[in-house]
Amino acid sequence: MIKKSFESAAAVKRIFALCASLRIALIMKLMFASCVIQLCTQISLFLAANVNIFALHYLV
Fold it and tell me: The organism sits in which domain of life (predicted)?
């Protein structure tokens, strides 16, 4: 009886460890996605600024 309770406690600990690692992986994926989105935003802003500079150069 006591051995079974120890085994179930170990199983619960394994499940909690697995959930924690999955949560960390999810957080890392979300951080990576936000970094990619920020990078794309910066690139698009940079390109838009360059296009505006070229347009002003040719208009003047």
Answer: Eukaryota
